[in-house]
């Protein structure tokens, strides 16, 4: 009886760990997609002439909305893009 209860507790803990990991990854993926769409939309709507290249997409994909703000800020400060 004790062995089965211990195995059940371990399985439940593993399921909770996997669920939390998947939830965090899902949030990061959504943030990255929103950041990339924001970069493309900002460039299209406001004719900002931000060069969408490998580095701007990578920064935006990793940083999400914060990465988008970094790319736009660097563009307007004249540092890059």
Can you offer a commentary on this structure?
By secondary structure, this protein is mainly alpha-helical. The protein has one domain. It has helices at 2-46, 54-63, 65-77. It is rod-shaped and about 70 Å long. The model has no long low-confidence stretch (mean pLDDT 90).
Summarize the structure.
This protein has 81 residues and is an all-alpha fold. The protein is built from three helices and no strands.
Keywords:
3 helices; rod-shaped
State the distance separating the first and last CA atoms.
64 Å
- Average pLDDT, rounded to a whole number, is 90
Order of helices and strands: HHH
Principal-axes shape call: rod-shaped
Largest sheet: none
Strand content: under 5%
| Strands, count | 0
Query: Given the helix and strand composition, which structural class is it?
Result: mainly alpha
Rg calculated over all Cα atoms: 20 Å
Count of domains = 1
- What helical percentage do the residues reach? over 70%
Low-confidence stretches: none
Counted by DSSP, the helix tally is 3
């Amino acid at each position: 009886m004790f062995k089965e209860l211990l195995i059940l507790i371990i399985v439940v803990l593993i399921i909770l760990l996997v669920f939390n990991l998947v939830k965090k990854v899902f949030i990061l993926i959504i943030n990255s997609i929103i950041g990339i769409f924001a970069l493309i939309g900002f460039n299209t709507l406001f004719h900002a002439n931000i060069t969408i290249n490998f580095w701007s997409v990578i920064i935006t994909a990793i940083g999400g909305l914060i990465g988008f703000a970094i790319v736009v800020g660097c563009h307007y400060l004249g540092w890059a893009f």
